[in-house]
Amino acid sequence: MDFKWDESHSVGNEVLDDQHRRLFDVLDMMNNDKGIYNRSYNAVYITYLEQFAKSHFRTERILMVDNCYEGIEQHVESHRQLLRKLSKIKAEIDDKDIEQRKKLIDFVLDWKVNHILTEDMKLKHLFGPKVIS
Ligand SMILES: [Fe+2]
Ligand SMILES: [Fe+2]
User: Cα dihedral sign for 36, 89, 15, 132?
Assistant: First the structure.
């Protein structure tokens, strides 16, 4: 399966697109990583995802505030839910159990489909050319 970012995933903002592209690359990497040489497979990706999420969500929040986005409360709440889900997974899965990586991959896939391609996509109109009336 190919998880690479393409133009159809664009939310119309270069910084966010670049960050989303990095997340999709990590998803692709996780999917292809057989974990043979890395005994703490899950811990490495969880740590990366936690740091990525915090900084990415901060970027989105700033852009939403700057652009007076009306749905900011709901959007920020769904970021909190994603962080809660990730810490639940962190508590549940074993560092070294390669079989459990599916849980983590499913989490990122769910983030991609149910957040980036739906919630983040709603931000697109903020970044388009401004209509002056
Ligand atoms: Fe995002
Ligand atoms: Fe978001």
Answer: positive
Per-residue pLDDT, 36: 64
Please tell me the distance between residue 32's alpha carbon and the centre of ligand 1 in angstroms.
Answer: 23
- So where are the chain's domains? 12-127
Instruction: Mark the ranges of the chain whose per-residue pLDDT is less than 50.
Output: none
pLDDT reported for residue 31: 87
Provide the CATH topology of domain 12-127.
Four Helix Bundle (Hemerythrin (Met), subunit A) (1.20.120)
Paired tokens of 25: 């690359």
| 57 Cα to the center of ligand 1, angstroms | 7
Tokens matching residue 24: 């999709």
